[in-house]
TrEMBL record:
InterPro entries referenced in this protein's UniProt entry, alphabetically: Brnchd-chn_aa_trnsp_permease
One GO term of the biological process aspect: L-valine transmembrane transport
Taxonomy, superkingdom: Bacteria
UniProt membrane topology term: Multi-pass membrane protein
Cellular-component GO terms for this entry: plasma membrane
Entry protein name: AzlC family ABC transporter permease
Family per record: Belongs to the AzlC family.
Length: 237
């Protein structure tokens, strides 16, 4: 596979996410304006952060008059998944030049990671240059859609009827991303614990229950991995 072929394959593989990313990003534009941001501020947040979940979290906390420090801390915790994404991609993309990796880090979103990592795992013989091109192919579709529809939502959000319920895109997006990646017992346990804990701690003020749920899920996943490793070692011995 040549880099050009890999690029266009990544572009095509991410195409189905347009159905989700478009209303999701438009919803952010609408919510940002409702929260008091002007069009320039909404677009600056979308371009600089480019992480929908943490952007919605920060806006919700600021609307609740939470201290800026709490809003930033919670948004950072939500975005810590990007660090785990990066670690998972190192075996496939770690060979790229520093500047290329920095651009990849900026462009990283849930959709591109989910599609790219699955393709890399299913195609272990994929050339290194093709892996880099594939990643950028994924992003060259997602990013313009994110920017464009955020701007659309910020400009015309007030004219969108409430009956359209654009907020459906948020849970659908993450279900579509997470479900195909739940391949092992630790993955499924971590996902289950995070969902249950998020509901159990929903009463915690300023959405800090999300931090508790994330911590419990990570501990659960790590302990499950250790348990499976020890059991495999005992079976070999």
């Amino acid at each position: 596979m040549t880099p050009t072929q890999a690029f266009w394959r990544g572009y095509r593989d991410c195409a189905p996410f347009i159905v989700i990313v478009a209303p999701y990003s438009m919803l952010f534009g609408v919510v940002a304006r409702d929260a008091g941001l002007d069009v320039l501020q909404a677009m600056a947040m979308a371009v600089l952060v480019i992480a929908g979940a943490s952007q919605f979290t920060a806006l919700a906390l600021l609307q609740d008059q939470a201290p800026v420090f709490i809003a930033l801390l919670t948004a950072l915790a939500v975005n810590l998944r990007m660090a785990m994404y990066s670690a998972a991609l190192v075996p496939h993309l770690g060979h790229a030049r520093l500047g290329t990796r920095a651009l990849m880090a900026y462009l990283m979103v849930d959709q591109a990671f989910a599609v790219a990592v699955r393709t890399y795992e299913d195609n272990p013989q994929m050339p290194k240059a093709a892996k880099v091109a594939y990643y950028f192919g994924c992003m060259m579709l997602i990013c313009p859609i994110w920017y464009g529809f955020t701007l659309t939502g910020a400009l015309v959000g007030q004219a969108i009827p409430a009956s359209l319920s654009l907020d459906f895109a948020v849970p659908v997006c993450f279900i579509a991303l997470a479900a195909p990646l739940l391949r092992t017992l630790p993955h499924m346990l971590a996902a289950g614990v995070s969902a249950i804990a998020a509901l159990a701690f929903a009463w915690v003020p300023r959405s800090l229950g999300l931090l508790v749920a994330a911590a419990l899920a990570m501990v659960t996943g790590a302990q499950a991995e250790l348990w499976l490793k020890r059991r495999a070692e005992r079976s070999v011995a």
